[in-house]
User: Which sequence fits this backbone?
């Protein structure tokens, strides 16, 4: 596709004054390295007193020719094939270009685009093969927003998601992926403990990779509030259901159905969490921001009501490419998180869009700075009609994950997940590829943790299930259309376990000793490179861990190493630290320009949650910076061994922190004879979820405490697989940790090994 002539923009009498004004305001407000990246600021020096926009003009060669600068930008937008805009070798930030286009091509309208002619006029595109593109649009409807049209003008990463293309006529794959083992009206159920409510089948914008992209799916009847209440009654009658995912379509388009669902579910005792899935934060932010951000306020008010009933609302968002991230989307996420609604990110892995680690790292970094939690990479794309150009082998996703592990914060690492026809698995822990289907090489048998009895608990007729088989360990294999990309990823059947005598349960005295050591001994991770002090460790390219009392050499080290985005501060031993020392330390850390997150390892919170007072919570939250241009997140790190350690007081503290925009997460080491049983970790995951503490890392091996107390008999891989399988089957996806091995060179993902990447 080529652009049309930019007749609405490309003329000589562009009004320069408003463009200059918004440009200065934009760079003065948002012009930070955390948002634009270090590369943009390279060689962007200027005379004293000059603002960032003036320095940009000078570097682009337009220091005394502002009119020429804007004319050049407009002409490049009109002539390029949705590529990045570079002026005199300087790549202009997409966020800035979007800001200009909001003035040049204003509006927040939605368009149902039915013809190629309408597409050309609406989205400024031109195609030579009109008949082919019209055939695509007849088969797979097109909807756009002004927001994504502006983004598509300067970003191929956005255009490829929303604009129709001829490859959609390739009907490889399925009409729709299997979307629920049990259906009843608006309700779909894939798992025992959670259900889906489909409140509206329409979307403001249609993604070309959507698994509901067929016209017949896009024209399903909108459910009524009465049908929503029937789904609520189904949940009320099944005490196993703890979480509801409200989705669609776009559920926020149907306020009446949303209100019915939220009000009906609020008083059901066994329901703990409502998760609302929305893509509008990315492609139609005006849904949240119009009418003085009334929808944001509605959700915040509903969450306050839910808190009074001991429940919470979470928002799930999909972002694919960093160019989708706008000032608007960042402000929406930040506003929700700052006021107590947690936001989590799911990302489909799409060929030609985000299948390299660098792109994903940039995306996750931007979203995490706004307060979002990085949750899933879905791989592969749903194998349905019209999406073949997006398909990728699993080996490519593993390569991208390995890049992320080496180059971004551990708090930006997603779980690598595939939604098989039976249910989700995380690769190499709760599931793996067993073998290619011998009769159809496009399909692979994937081991899942689910069993026939698991599904019989809520499915009337198990014979209606998709292709499955029972493996020799008693779980189910799913037949799924996927290419592995590396034969080494075909694990075949799980080897027979060697029978060993069970590790004896440790005495209470031993457990108390292990617990005390976990919470009092120095826990700085091994440093991957030399540091100036034993009180500071370079645990990762992006993370430094430091003890209280670190001196000037530590701060010099932090300042000089701009790759560091995270600092974990460990308080000394188990004593209450001097609050004045902490204030001084935090005041200095928050001024380090490249730090995006300061993580406080509060050992007292683990054993004495009452020590975290309201005054202290208020002070912690004051260190947060919720600005878009220079954000600083504050997170609290805790460590636990057993579920009984988590008290009601932990939930009280965590809830207060979350209401101030401070996330709290837990790490857990596996210790033989203490917590190395699946049922213990499942119970721990449930307790953490109830306490609103994120289950971050389950350390399998490598920690100092494990080398000491697991000496001679480390936790074996079969035990880890048993634990991961049980957690995936019995818990919500939001309760699943990352399974980690600590090594002298840093943390690695359990089971993820080097692969040969094939196209």
Assistant:
């Amino acid at each position: 596709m080529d652009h049309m002539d930019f007749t609405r923009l490309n003329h000589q009498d562009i009004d320069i004054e408003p463009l200059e004004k918004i440009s200065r305001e934009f760079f003065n407000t948002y012009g930070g390295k955390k948002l634009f990246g270090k590369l943009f600021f390279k060689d962007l020096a200027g005379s004293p007193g000059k603002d960032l926009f003036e320095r940009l003009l000078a570097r682009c060669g337009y220091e005394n020719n502002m009119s020429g600068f804007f004319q050049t930008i407009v002409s490049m937008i009109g002539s390029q094939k949705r590529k990045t805009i570079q002026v005199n070798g300087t790549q202009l930030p997409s966020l800035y270009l979007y800001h200009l286009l909001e003035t040049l091509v204003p509006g927040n309208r939605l368009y149902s685009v039915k013809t190629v002619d309408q597409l050309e006029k609406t989205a400024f595109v031109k195609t030579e093969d009109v008949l082919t593109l019209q055939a695509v649009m007849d088969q797979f409807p097109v909807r756009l927003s002004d927001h994504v049209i502006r983004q598509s003008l300067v970003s191929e990463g956005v255009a490829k998601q929303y604009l129709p293309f001829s490859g959609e006529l390739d009907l490889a794959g399925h009409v729709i992926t299997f979307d629920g083992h049990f259906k009843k009206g608006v309700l779909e159920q894939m798992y025992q403990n959670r259900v889906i409510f489909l409140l509206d089948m329409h979307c403001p914008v249609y993604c070309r990779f959507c698994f509901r992209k067929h016209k017949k799916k896009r024209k399903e009847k909108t459910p009524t509030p009465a049908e929503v209440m029937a789904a609520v009654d189904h949940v009320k009658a099944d005490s196993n259901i703890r979480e509801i995912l409200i989705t669609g379509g776009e559920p926020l388009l149907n306020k009446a159905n949303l209100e019915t669902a939220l009000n009906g579910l609020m008083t059901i005792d066994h329901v703990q969490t409502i998760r609302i899935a929305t893509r509008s934060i990315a492609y139609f932010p005006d849904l949240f921001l119009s009418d003085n951000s009334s929808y944001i306020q509605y959700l915040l008010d509903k969450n306050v009501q839910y808190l009074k009933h001991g429940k919470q609302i979470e928002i799930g968002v999909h972002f694919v490419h960093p160019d989708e991230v706008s000032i608007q989307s960042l402000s929406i996420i930040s506003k929700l998180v700052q006021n107590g609604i947690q936001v989590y990110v799911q990302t489909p892995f799409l060929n030609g869009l985000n299948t390299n680690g660098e792109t994903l790292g940039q995306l996750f970094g931007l979203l995490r700075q706004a307060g979002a939690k990085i949750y899933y990479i879905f791989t592969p794309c749903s194998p349905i009609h019209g999406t073949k150009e997006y398909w990728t082998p699993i080996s490519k996703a593993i390569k991208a994950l390995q890049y992320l592990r080496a180059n971004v914060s551990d708090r930006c690492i997603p779980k690598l997940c595939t939604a098989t026809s039976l249910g989700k698995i995380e690769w190499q822990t709760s599931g793996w590829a067993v073998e290619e289907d011998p009769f159809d090489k496009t399909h692979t048998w994937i081991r899942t943790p689910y069993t026939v009895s698991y599904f019989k608990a809520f499915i009337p007729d198990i014979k209606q299930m998709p292709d499955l088989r029972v493996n020799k360990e008693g779980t189910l294999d799913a037949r799924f259309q996927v290419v592995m990309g590396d034969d080494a990823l075909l694990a075949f059947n799980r080897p027979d376990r060697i029978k060993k005598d069970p590790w004896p349960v440790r005495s209470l005295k031993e457990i108390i000793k292990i617990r005390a050591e976990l919470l009092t001994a120095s826990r700085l991770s091994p440093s991957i490179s030399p540091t100036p002090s034993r009180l500071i460790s370079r645990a990762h390219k992006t993370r430094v861990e430091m003890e209280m009392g670190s001196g000037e050499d530590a701060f010099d080290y932090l300042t000089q190493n701009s790759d560091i985005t995270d600092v974990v501060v460990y308080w000394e031993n188990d004593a209450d630290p001097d609050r004045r020392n902490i204030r001084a330390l935090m005041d200095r850390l928050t001024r380090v320009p490249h730090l995006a997150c300061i993580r406080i390892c509060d050992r007292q919170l683990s054993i004495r949650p009452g020590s975290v007072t309201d005054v202290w919570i208020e002070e912690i939250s004051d260190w947060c910076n919720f600005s878009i241009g220079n954000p600083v997140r504050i997170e609290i790190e805790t460590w636990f061994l057993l579920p009984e350690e988590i008290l009601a007081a932990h939930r009280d503290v965590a809830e207060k922190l979350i209401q101030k925009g401070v996330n709290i997460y837990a790490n857990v080491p596996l210790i033989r004879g203490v917590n190395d049983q699946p049922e213990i970790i499942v119970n721990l995951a449930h307790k953490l979820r109830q306490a609103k503490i994120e289950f971050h890392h389950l350390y399998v091996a490598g920690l100092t405490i494990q080398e000491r107390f697991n000496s001679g008999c480390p936790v074996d891989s079969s035990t880890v697989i048993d634990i991961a399988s049980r957690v995936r089957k019995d818990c919500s996806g939001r309760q699943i940790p990352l399974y980690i091995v600590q090594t002298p060179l840093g943390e690695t993902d359990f089971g993820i090994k080097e692969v040969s990447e094939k196209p």
